[in-house]
Amino acid sequence: MPKVDEYFEFENLNLGENEFVLRNLYLFLDPYVRLTLKEPEPEREQPINKAPSRKLVQIGQIIVGAGVSEVIKTNNPNFKVGDLVYALFLGWEEYSHIKSDAATSFLPINKDLLKYGETIFISAAAGFVGQLVGQIAKIKGMKVVGSAGSDEEVDYLLNELKFDAAFNYKKVDLDEALYKYCPNGIDIYYENVGGETLEVVLNNCNLFGRIVVCGMISQYNITDPKEKNME
């Protein structure tokens, strides 16, 4: 693992097979990082505390987490200079030299996922993530439809964020609402809730539709899931 104050000259770096160099653009400050900075507590039943101590960040080591980076030098056929990539275990550093054994953990970001004229449906659209997804989709020229849990949130989506359509899922039949507001079907579903919502959306997705799973908040505390999509 890289150490603090460790440097390398990437301009003159001779890359091995499948290696590449990243300029790190965004690093996620996730709450779980705190748990990697302290010793395990045996009395607590948490997965992080069941991990071996080598998983913890030692003094002098670089903290790791999710992030987005740009490829600036490459000897890997799967990545070209200028590509944006995403990884769950990225060092908190300006630049990263990725060795061949770690290359498969990096995923290219598909900048063409959002296509002009297509329809995207966002559940929990009034939440922080849903708001951002909706605005980006509008910039890309998509038809944006969202669901929320109150009339005030629906009003915000329609009048402030300029969604093409929005509805209060507590007051409508979801299948009928999707048929009404997405008459040409759903091309992208941005998933935040899971459960019955996902089940209904699957029946309204177009052929070759895409589903981006951010979360399934309705499912986290259940012990006996009934929906088929959770079996």
UniProtKB/TrEMBL annotation:
<feature type="domain" description="Alcohol dehydrogenase-like C-terminal">
    <location>
        <begin position="129"/>
        <end position="221"/>
    </location>
</feature>
<dbReference type="InterPro" id="IPR041694">
    <property type="entry name" value="ADH_N_2"/>
</dbReference>
<dbReference type="GO" id="GO:0016628">
    <property type="term" value="F:oxidoreductase activity, acting on the CH-CH group of donors, NAD or NADP as acceptor"/>
</dbReference>
<feature type="domain" description="Oxidoreductase N-terminal">
    <location>
        <begin position="13"/>
        <end position="101"/>
    </location>
</feature>
<dbReference type="InterPro" id="IPR036291">
    <property type="entry name" value="NAD(P)-bd_dom_sf"/>
</dbReference>
<dbReference type="InterPro" id="IPR011032">
    <property type="entry name" value="GroES-like_sf"/>
</dbReference>
<dbReference type="InterPro" id="IPR045010">
    <property type="entry name" value="MDR_fam"/>
</dbReference>
<dbReference type="Pfam" id="PF16884">
    <property type="entry name" value="ADH_N_2"/>
</dbReference>
<dbReference type="Pfam" id="PF00107">
    <property type="entry name" value="ADH_zinc_N"/>
</dbReference>
<protein>
    <recommendedName>
        <fullName>Alcohol dehydrogenase-like C-terminal domain-containing protein</fullName>
    </recommendedName>
</protein>
<dbReference type="InterPro" id="IPR013149">
    <property type="entry name" value="ADH-like_C"/>
</dbReference>
<keyword id="KW-0560">Oxidoreductase</keyword>
